[in-house]
Amino acid sequence: xxxxxxxxxxxxxxxxxxxxxxxxxxxxxxxxxxxxxxxxxxxxxxxxxxxxxxxxxxxxxxxxxxxxxxxxxxxxxxxxxxxxxxxxxxxxxxxxxxxxxxxxxxxxxxxxxxxxxxxxxxxxxxxxxxxxxxxxxxxxxxxxxxxxxxxxxxxxxxxxxxxxxxxxxxxxxxxxxxxxxxxxxxxxxxxxxxxxxxxxxxxxxxxxxxxxxxxxxxxxxxxxxxxxxxxxxxxxxxxxxxxxxxxxxxxxxxxxxxxxxxxxxxxxxxxxxxxxxxxxxxxxxxxxxxxxxxxxxxxxxxxxxxxxxxxxxxxxxxxxxxxxxxxxxxxxxxxxxxxxxxxxxxxxxxxxxxxxxxxxxxxxxxxxxxxxxxxxxxxxxxxxxx
Length: 386
Fold this sequence. Notes:
With 386 residues, this protein is mainly alpha-helical. It has 15 helices and 5 strands. It has helices at 39-58, 62-80, 87-94, 103-124, 131-141, 180-191, 200-214, 221-235, 247-252, 254-267, 270-307, 313-325, 331-338, 342-354, 373-379; strands spanning 7-14, 17-24, 328-330, 359-360, 369-371. The mean pLDDT is 93.
């Protein structure tokens, strides 16, 4: 449904250019959403999310996958903004090994992981999803590396624009700074609205676009906006755990993603955006279920190969589980995580190398690193830098 412009323009001056900035009207959309074409998509998404929750509940230790899936979402969301880091770079950095890209790229991803974990912990403590929490998230997200000079944790006090070298050439000019608090207060009220029968999945999709339109920070708005989806879905019980790396879908369809965000503002076509977004939830939920199944079958296969090696098998199985949690590691890091002695961890890793399960990366005799290649290749799908 096309409603026309979903806001009003106000004149402002940015960098000496007099431009029209866009101030969105509060949510929910008016006229109300036409859910006729969305009902089937919404039902499919909810079924897929139910299967995703079912898979996580059946895992012997879902923390193993949470560790890597959270990092995959952090990586993908950061790649949309231009970082060239890979999952291997992130894992190397966490082992205090030099990554294959500038450290600033990896720090962005590490900060995203920290921001996501902080937000989820605050919500579990009962803290409301609010502008205060959003500022906390932003402060952590931009605490180090690029963007750390862009007022982390503070709403912008100046105008910004998107696209173009100057404001007068911009593709879009978000609300002036003096309109931010009113816009954010309206958004916060929408996040906590009750009695409107709006499905949680759609509320998260609407809130994401509104946040991106408000663009309250000097930097990091895209990443915070995508985090907002995760926080809302977990807070409202649609997701039990943040296993849904939705940025995979946004990254693969980034031109459509940005086009539909613009289309909401210029035409008021919320339904087209929501259809795209809900289809993405279904796609990624199904992808996560399939990937989890493949990872589970891979580990089962490799456990079977290890089981026939007598007295060495017990320790080797513990080492395999450690690599299933973090598919790249050194002997000392594995010994620490498994609580095995260094010689026992080393002997177990040697067995896994002999069996073709692990591969040594460095070619050195000391300070060696090992990778669970088949496992990491499944996790790596879709994470190639743009």
